[in-house]
Amino acid sequence: MDHKSSSFFFRGVHLNLNHCRRASSVLGRDIVHFNYDFFSVNDPYIFYSSVIEFSTTFRNFFHPYNPLAGFIIANSNFKVFPIYVESSIVALEIGLQEENFAIISIYCPPSKDLKENLDELKKLLLDLGDKNILILGDFNAKSRVWGLRDGDHRGDLVLEMAEQFDLLIVNKNDSNPSFNGPQGISWIDILLIKNINIERIQNWTIEDKITLSDHQKMVFDIVPQNTNPF
After folding, report:
1. pLDDT of residue 5 exceeding 50
2. What is the dihedral of CA 209, 212, 215, 221, to 10 degrees?
3. Which residues are registered as beta bridge partners of 159?
4. Are 109 and 139 in contact (CB under 8 A)?
5. Which domains occur in the chain, in start order?
6. Most distant CA pair in the chain: distance in Å?
7. What is the dihedral of CA 115, 127, 37, 78, to 10 degrees?
């Protein structure tokens, strides 16, 4: 499978699967069809504690017990080193073309105190220091910074963390909602970056394609350092 392209460095995607097996099957096909390089997954479908429905040719990184967040690496050219693997947060170092990135997938359930998840993430950010960092996750937090609806206390906590650690929020507040379920629509899936020029994140979007999950895919490209914006 060729994940090389002259138009972008590599393509990342994030999706909360809402623990749906059919959504996992759709995602597995999309990874192949759209040549995604890596995928951040929240709330995956599991069978006997294993994440299934994805090709065995992909490298999967999930906690072995009750995984709530993790990564699928489809690009065989990536050098991958696990940094931190827990149930609700997974961090990897990936390398491509002599540049390394720390990518983090985090899921913050609405029923859990967000501060616990953020404290875990903050400790990880301190350890990562000045690495190039991307954070992808469903924070179940609302703010007009990344959505069209009024914010809440959880959104304030995310903004405080972003300010504390000099994180940039890539989301656009006029995007499609990332969640559309029985509870209504909301903007709760976020991409944050650190030590990466914002102009390198291109074609960021919340898609409106069928996923069979209550969530939509967040898709973006990361281009080389000296590439001009499209």
Report:
1. no
2. -50
3. none
4. no
5. 10-222 (3.60.10.10)
6. 47
7. -160
